[in-house]
Write a structure and sequence with these properties.
The protein is an alpha/beta fold. 39% of the residues lie in helices and 16% in strands. It has helices spanning 3-6, 59-67, 74-91, 96-111, 118-134, 139-168, 186-189, 195-204, 221-232, 245-250, 276-285, 317-320, 367-374; strands at 31-34, 38-42, 53-56, 177-180, 210-214, 237-240, 256-259, 263-265, 270-273, 290-293, 299-300, 321-323, 329-331, 344-347, 354-357, 360-362. The longest helix has 30 residues, at 139-168. It is globular and about 65 Å long. Bound molecules: 5-S-methyl-1-O-phosphono-5-thio-D-ribulose. This is Methylthioribose-1-phosphate isomerase.
Length: 376
């Protein structure tokens, strides 16, 4: 049999979720804590061809799952890190000092797994007092205390998405075509989504919207993930290559851009998936508003501007080779030629029409409007 004929992808989407009651609330979810303090993670690298869930019961496996992008998206990796501490607590059966030592090592491991999305460090910071208070409890109670806190954090992040979706609804005209980049949906947040939360809210409000998803080279989160989850929810979506954005803007085919964020600096600068800055420049040139949707956990008031945000460089191979469904890779770049692979870029606040959070809108994006939201 020839090599070409051997490639028959197995379509296994629609597999039943192994968790009895996912917090995400959908038929699928990025991450959940299982009874027995194991995590179940939807392996997003396999989408859209396979909906495959992996079980993880060691904290180093949780860190690997984040680093290797089984789970990705700023809020989702924060939630996963919080659950990672639960897994670590279940493995740490010693007295209070040895528990605290194990938890500190787990925190450091998880914190180092990806650098740009501040939600990861934010979630671990939220868990710190819970860990300290639980240290003197008996083993069963302390593990359960962490499990309750991490599940609570997960629930609150999903609720924030629903709330920001309701705020963002006001920005979406009936009949709008919305451009989005990367995946800022249920897969990236543990449920509902940020940019796609606004899309879902508009769809639920029966606004006649449609979505254009950039494929999002090199990791193809738009083509593989955004298209998958919107199609599942029967929200009209088409995929374009990243290089087609200017063409469709010039044709007046896009009414607004809505993207997520990995970190928002105090002055309103936004780090998001590589390519967002280019889209923002094109949108500004065509008078199309660009909105950023993110829970407050993505705002990092300690970063004064985008200059302070660390940008992750992913392996060259993610750009130079395309993974195939049969486990092989298609080489795209000649042997001996290097590749660059920054995973995020920074869009300056002046190109962002508004930042949509669960606290309301920061409009225009900037230090003053964010300070207003912070002060409630
Ligand atoms: O590298 P990824 O897939 O983790 O990047 C994700 C993004 O850039 C998202 O747009 C961002 O995290 C917002 S998710 C609600």
């Amino acid at each position: 049999m020839s090599g070409a004929n051997r490639f028959v992808p197995t379509l296994r989407t629609g597999q039943a979720h192994p968790h009895p009651a996912p917090i995400g609330g959908d038929a699928y979810s990025a991450v959940e804590l299982m009874p027995g303090y194991r995590l179940v993670i939807l392996d997003q690298r396999k989408l859209p061809l396979q909906e495959r869930y992996e079980f993880v019961s060691r904290v180093d496996e949780v860190a690997d799952a984040i680093r290797n992008m089984l789970v990705r998206g700023a809020p989702a990796i924060g939630i996963t890190a919080a659950y990672g501490l639960v897994v670590a607590a279940y493995a740490a059966r010693g007295d209070a000092p040895s528990f605290l030592e194990a938890m500190s090592a787990a925190d450091a491991l998880l914190r180092a797994s990806r650098p740009t999305a501040v939600n990861l460090a934010w979630a671990l910071d939220q868990m710190k007092p819970v860990v300290a208070n639980a240290a003197n409890l008996p083993f069963v109670q302390r593990t359960e205390a962490l499990a309750q806190a991490a599940s609570g954090l997960h629930r609150a992040e999903v609720a924030a998405c629903r709330m920001l979706g309701a705020h963002g609804l006001t920005l979406v005209p009936d009949g709008a075509t919305i451009l989005t980049h990367c995946n800022a949906g249920a897969l990236a947040t543990g449920g509902y989504g940020t940019a796609l939360g606004i899309v879902r809210a508009a769809h639920e409000a029966r606004k006649n919207i449609r979505v254009i998803a950039c494929e999002t080279r090199p990791y193809l989160q738009g083509a593989r993930l955004t298209a998958w989850e919107l199609h599942k929810d029967r929200i009209p979506v088409e995929v374009i290559s990243d290089s087609m954005v200017a063409h469709f803007m010039a044709k007046k085919a896009i009414d607004l851009v809505v993207v997520g964020a990995d970190r928002i600096a105090r002055n309103g600068d936004v780090a998001n998936k590589i390519g967002t800055y280019g889209i923002a420049c094109i949108a500004a040139a065509h008078g199309v508003p660009l909105y950023v949707a993110a829970p407050w956990s993505t705002v990092d008031l300690k970063c004064s501007s985008g200059e302070d945000i660390p940008i992750e460089e992913r392996p060259e191979r993610e750009l130079s080779h395309l993974p195939l469904a049969d486990g092989n890779q298609l080489q795209l770049v000649p042997d001996g030629v290097g590749a660059r692979n920054p995973s995020f870029d920074v869009t300056p606040a002046r190109l962002v029409a508004a930042i949509v959070t669960e606290r309301g809108l920061a409009r225009p994006a900037g230090e003053a409007s964010l300070a207003n939201l912070r002060n409630g």
